[in-house]
Task: inverse folding
């Protein structure tokens, strides 16, 4: 692998211990994947922030990198943490967990990482443009950056994303290269969705239906998806989260919607996604009855301000009857505060869970069944916390939380 003078200086330890360790990680990765060189990255998004996932060993490693003088050279932001950094008590987070989570955030801050904890960095100040090279880690954000924006990133692990931040580099392999961005299979979407209702939940189910079929293909091709005429930003973020979760997809093309699709003709190999596939995907994420639901959450991926405005509209003058978490980033919450949405939502009894989400927070054993509009949240609700789920249209999720007498 060819390294520049600057990169060799980092590797030789001339720019501090942490930078040396970071360059060692990237050089090893580049060697494994056959990268010819390093490329500069425009921004970084680091996952593995929740102390629930990181544990003591992860925190020790971060502290070591911060003590070793590591400093981010590019804009770097964080994935959701295990709690609302400012308001963790209201969410029932244990104090000992909070203390460790704060140490994690402090270690990142010492390294100059912007401590905005969100999986939708593109809504909160970390918005790349077409063709930029990135080192992002969160699977839904990686899929969004590659597909919807046309930026270029592999799905980084926590250590390799931090290493990219501390060096401003990533090895040139995978989705950074033109040849790996070509579609390998056409997906014909024939199903129209249940009850004619589209929206985030439909795109969550569609992501699962397509994802399952992609997973079954040995070559893991980039899909070229036909049959979707329009999709909002919110629907696309829901779809990215779901297709990444169920199909491991980090890039897709949709003609008329995503920016690189026009460069390609539909591949000859075709798979169909029928109404029966969509119905099966929906059914598989609906194993709880309304009575069983004791936890409601919107914001996987983190909510946009338009979604929060809609929640405020639906909750105005109402009282909720179930624990209801609204998860978003700190900058988006600030807009909600200013617009008066926060006051309306909190008056209903619903809680903002900022900087975190229902998957990375330590909630094991607290609830029985989750209602959500997110296909990804359904997957992890069961896989991580053994919760039953109800996947519903966005507005119905809010109604599910509201007391039935209203
Ligand atoms: Fe984001 Fe948490 Fe969902 S990190 S994509 S809200 S699982």
Result:
């Amino acid at each position: 692998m060819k390294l520049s003078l600057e990169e060799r200086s980092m590797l030789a330890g001339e720019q501090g211990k942490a930078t040396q360790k970071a360059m060692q990680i990237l050089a090893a990765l580049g060697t494994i994947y056959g990268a010819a060189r390093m490329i500069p990255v425009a921004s970084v998004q680091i996952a593995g922030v929740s102390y629930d996932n990181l544990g003591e060993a992860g925190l020790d490693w971060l502290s070591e990198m911060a003590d070793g003088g590591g400093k981010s050279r590019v804009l770097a932001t964080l994935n959701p943490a295990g709690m609302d950094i400012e308001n963790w008590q209201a969410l029932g987070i244990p104090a000992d967990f909070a203390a460790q989570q704060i140490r994690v955030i402090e270690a990142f801050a010492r390294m100059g990482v912007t401590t905005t904890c969100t999986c939708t960095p593109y809504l909160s100040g970390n918005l790349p443009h077409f063709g930029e090279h990135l080192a992002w880690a969160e699977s839904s954000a990686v899929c969004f950056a590659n597909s919807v924006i046309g930026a270029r990133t592999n799905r980084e692990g926590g250590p390799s994303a931090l290493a990219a931040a501390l060096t401003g580099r990533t090895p040139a392999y995978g989705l950074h290269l033109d040849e790996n961005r070509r579609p390998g299979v056409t997906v014909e979407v024939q199903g129209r969705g249940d009850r004619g209702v589209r929206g985030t939940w439909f795109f969550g189910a569609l992501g699962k239906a397509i994802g399952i079929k992609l997973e079954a293909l040995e070559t893991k091709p980039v899909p070229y998806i036909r049959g979707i005429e329009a999709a909002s930003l919110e629907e696309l973020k829901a779809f990215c989260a779901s297709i990444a979760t169920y199909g491991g997809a980090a890039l897709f093309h949709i003609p008329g919607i995503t920016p690189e699709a026009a460069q390609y003709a539909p591949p000859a190999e075709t798979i169909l996604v029928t109404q029966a596939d969509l119905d099966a995907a929906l059914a598989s994420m609906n194993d709880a009855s309304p009575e069983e639901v004791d936890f409601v959450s919107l914001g996987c991926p983190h909510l946009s301000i338009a979604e929060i405005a809609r929640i405020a509209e639906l909750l105005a003058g109402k009282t909720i009857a179930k624990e209801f978490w609204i998860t978003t980033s700190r900058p988006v919450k600030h807009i909600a505060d200013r617009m008066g949405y926060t006051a309306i939502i909190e008056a209903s009894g619903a809680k903002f869970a900022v900087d975190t989400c229902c998957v990375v927070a330590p909630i094991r054993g607290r609830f029985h069944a989750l209602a959500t509009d997110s296909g990804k949240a359904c997957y992890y609700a069961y896989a991580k916390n053994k919760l039953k789920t109800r996947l519903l249209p966005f507005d119905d999720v809010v109604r599910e939380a509201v007391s039935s007498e209203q």
Observations:
- The chain is about 40% helix and 15% strand.
- The pocket of FE3-S4 cluster is lined by residues 79-80, 119, 140, 241, 300-302, 327, 357, 359-360, 376-377, 380 (CB under 6 Å).
- The chain has three domains: 5-178, 182-282, 295-401.
